[in-house]
Amino acid sequence: VGKGLASVAGHEIEPALINLALPVRMPTGPIDQMGYWPSYSHILELARGGYLQWLADGRKDPNVQIGFVFLFFYGLERRVLHDFRQDKETVNRELPDILAEVKRLLSIYGDSSGSFYGYANSFLDIIVTVGARDRIYRLPAPSTGKYKTLTLRHKAALGQIAVDGMALPIEWAYSWLANDERVFLRTPAKRCPEEFKKLFSTYYAEKFGEGMKLPVNKTKLKTLYRPASASFGYSHVELGDANLPDITVIEGPLNKLREIAERATEQLDTYSRI
């Protein structure tokens, strides 16, 4: 809240900034949809009133336009990606609350907006990865998302496993396979996901015991995030040097997982014919 906070890129006013000097009108009916990349300073008086009302009511009305949710989300992005560099200790303490709030917003607005679903999940991934106080592969592996994508959490965990000389746990192997956009599972695996996962886990343990060992390749992992907020200048934000290999750029380990997945799929197909 204020008048003069510049965007992170420094070109304009911070989009999430609530300037109390700007006029506000409280809406009595529907509000025209705001444009892409809204800014509190540039939206109409009615939209400002609607946004402030949504904030005051607890940010939970499922019927508001998604632009309100993004305006608030922009502030969370700035707090974690920009303010963190200046006050790491304070923001670190806030991360659990920010994590919980983004999950809550996703539970309300994630199904109705694919755009918010994508940005919010990427942001959650960043918070968990950057804020992890233990090796990431010791945390639960990400579940299969609505859209297949290999997250920074996946890549960081795989890099840590390789560097530490650890075996790739079954749950992380399956999460890699299920979320990698380069993997196309056949119909039996899609129709019977739980049965497929059990067969995959059985065959994986049969082949690798405690888990497959991953090589330490030379390509380094880039820790990049593309913010939803225009405050960052419409470009990726680099989160620092992870000093980890990017295992996902080599085909060998993924091909081994594909082979096990194919075996599990063929077994499922056999069961369906009996």
Features:
single chain, 274 residues, mainly alpha, two-stranded antiparallel sheet, two-stranded antiparallel ribbon, 9 helices, 50% helix, elongated
In short:
The chain has 274 residues and is mainly alpha-helical. Helix content is 50%, strand content 7%. The N and C termini lie far apart (66 Å).
Overview of the molecule:
The model has no long low-confidence stretch (mean pLDDT 92). The chain is elongated. Helices cover 50% and strands 7% of the residues. It is mainly alpha-helical and 274 residues long. The strands form two sheets. The chain has a two-stranded antiparallel sheet with strand order 1-2. It has a two-stranded antiparallel ribbon with strand order 3-4.
Share of residues in helices: 40-55%
Looking across the biggest beta sheet, what order are the strands in? 1-2
Q: What's the helix count?
A: 9
Global morphology: elongated
Enumerate the spans where pLDDT stays under 50 for 5 or more consecutive residues: none
Number of E-state strands: 4
Structural class: mainly alpha
